[in-house]
Amino acid sequence: MVKEAFQDVDLATNINPYFEKAQLLKAKTQLDLNMPEDVLVTVNNVIKLNPKSAEAYLIGGKARFKKGDLKKAIFNFNKALILNPEYKEAYLQIGSCYVAQGNLHKACEKFQQAEKNGQTVSFSDLCQ
Fold it and tell me: Given CB 3.0 to 4.6 Å as the disulfide criterion, which of 5, 39, 46, 63 pairs with 30?
């Protein structure tokens, strides 16, 4: 089902490569299909169209996380936060990067920032 959706959105972006929402949907679908290199190409296209797309930076960060490039993932997530300081998912993703690096103190700081911005999942067990 995801592959069929990808074919549809890929066609839409080929017809109109300037349709940002379709490009973002394409990147999300590529991420679901575990195609991180393709995700990065797609989000770079979105960023060329709209350098202020926090969502593009978030998706790019997720692709970099999947590749194991945690420093660049954190950079992307921080860029998303610069563009949208209330983007709770970006805080969560940075926290996940810090967990992967073994830095629970920094991870908990980001998880707490996500909670302050309305994240409903509690990380109190991890952050005690």
Answer: 39
Residue 96's alpha-carbon distances to 41, 70, 89, 109, 115, in angstroms, are: 23, 10, 10, 11, 14
Quote the CA–CA distance of 45 and 47 in Å, as a whole number: 5
- Say how many domains are in the chain: 1
**SS3 of 103, please?**
coil
Q: Is residue 126 part of a domain?
A: no
CATH number at 93 reads 1.25.40.10
Nearest Cα to 86, choosing from 105, 58, 62? 58
Q: Is the Cα dihedral 49, 41, 21, 91 positive or negative?
A: negative
Q: Read off the pTM.
A: 0.89
